[in-house]
Amino acid sequence: MLDLRPDEFRAVVNQVADAAEQFLAGLDGRRVTPDTSGDSVAAAFGGPVPEDGLRAGALDDLAVVGELGRVTNARFFGYVHGSGDPVAAAADLYASVINQNATAWRSSPAGIAIERTVVGWLAQAIGCPGFCGVFTSGGSLANLMGLAMARESRRPANEEGARPGVVYASAEAHMSMHKALALLGLGRANLRVVPVDDRFRMRVDALEQAIAEDRAAGRAAIAVVATAGTVNTGAIDPLSEIARVARDNDLWLHVDGAYGAPAAIAVPARFAGLALADSISLDAHKWLYQPLDCSVLLYRDPAIARTTFAYTGDYARSLTDDPVEGFAFFEETIELSRRLRALKLWVSLRYHGLAGFREAIRADLEHARMLARLVESEPGLELLAPVELSAVCFRMNDGGEESTLNARNAEILQRVIREGRVYLSNASIRGAFALRACFVNHRTTDADVEAIIAAVSAAATPRT
Ligand SMILES: Cc1ncc(COP(=O)(O)O)c(C=O)c1O
Question: Which fold would CATH assign to domain 90-349?
Answer without folding.
Answer: Aspartate Aminotransferase; domain 2 (3.40.640)
